[in-house]
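Notes continue from the previous slide.

Worked example: a multi-chain complex. Inputs as given:
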Amino acid sequence: MAFNSATYLLVLLLAVVVYWALPGSARRIFVLLAGLAFYASWGIIFVWLPLLVAVIVYVCGKQGHAEPACAKRWTWLGISGLLVLLAIFKYRGFLLGNLAVFSGSAGSSHSWATTIAFPMGISFYTFEAIGYLIDVRQRRVKIPSLLDLCLFFFFWPNVLSGPIVRARELVPQLSFRKAFEGRFIFEGADRVIWGLVQKTVIANVLGVWEDHGFAPGLNSRPSTLDGWFLAIAFGLQIYFDFAGYTNMAIGTARLLGVTLPENFRQPYHAATPPEFWARWHMTLSRWIRDYLFFPINAKWQGAPLPLYVSLIGVMGLVGLWHGAGWTFVLWGLMHGTYLVLYRIYEAWRKMPAGAPASPFIAVAWRVATLVAVFAAWVVFRSNNVSQARRILSAMFYRFAAGSSYPVLFYACTAIVGVLCAVEPILLRKLGEMEERAETETLSPFRVMVHPIAYLFGLLLFLLFDSNNAQFIYSQF
Amino acid sequence: MPEAEAIRKAAKEAAAQIAGRPIKEHQKLVSSGLIDSLSVLRLISLLEKKLKISIPPETLQPEDFDDVETIVETVERVGTPLS
């Protein structure tokens, strides 16, 4: 059951009413059953998988906590088990395909490797599970019950595509003992409806042309204008698609009185490559920083060469986490290279963190970051490396005139680009309006604007919901 | 181990040196984006020098250095005097 469907919205409405009508203890069972049903709606045969993940981390975490001398062994045992499951269910085709190429037996079929379906959300809950085991090893988390862990892994707002949550920030909220407050409904509905509009009206509309521009069989080189517009349109599509999904996830949780961490902070306003990763998919960046990048560099005390190697290596893994394909790895390696180049610049300038650069340098980094990020999106979206090379060459050095799309495509991309550019101003204005409304008693803003906005959002959803496209990140 | 007040003073000085500006007691360093994870490693190195202690960073996370008070708690928890 997709978030961007009328069925989900109706079921969500019913679930929220039932949830708040139930006493605290019954809410836990209700949310667990709702999570199981939601996950089963994507493929009933894989319901056992998050359950197995919960059992693995419960046993390894508990044993590691009880036997401090063997804690490291239990942590690694758990992490290895989780990675084996991830390899089997997500990377088997990629691994076997590449093994076949290297061993010279390309073309031999591994029918079992391609016939097993993909369990939704496996990359996300595997990372949450690994984070939990490391937190237990570092004694940052109290050992929860198996029921708590099942609730954590089956919590339906974020089970499919995050935000990637730490057990220590979500499990304490899963007692569901909060009393009902009207603001939960307003805050939750705001995010759900805005997410729905972002996905249906913005991302899906751009996606139709993107599917054409990146069609698998399309072998011709686009014009320079088309190359740039395809890159920018995909960058905007994936942002509004994933931010839309995240808003719906955060909003759904908020309707239950639960707070999930934010995932985006206007990423295309980043001034440098590291800042882009502090604004894009923030919960993944936090996971990578805390459980991979920081421990690796702590070992080498931040020495330059290990730092640069680890940046490129870790970002290559981030690419692979997104999808089992070389274009994803290449996308990650490109971002790793951007980060290394910025670190080299920082070291050369001997800048303290946050030190202001000259206005010219600051603008140059801002533009370079934006161009580099959109160039990398071409690789991410392409079906293979040669398709990416054709589009990138048209953008950067094999200039050709012409345009192959309807004017509406260029106009829509430009309008969404402007929307993205003014997003911080819009958010600030909205925040100010909300603040003003809160100081007024029974303000017309609170009474009327929210319901009218919800109706308008739902109307837009019904008008634009023609292709009911899947969220991009649900494939990862 | 150094006294809490000495750790607090060293933490403020080291954080200010890394951030390139004065730091307030409750100012968030990592979660506000003022310093990044690499700067946290430099912060650890500075604290070790100033306090003549050893801080094993392998079991730590950047959030353990998010403000001056958290730094004091972290150093008291994991820091060991250099022999």
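Summary box: Chain B has one domain: 4-81. The two ends of chain B are 11 Å apart (CA to CA).
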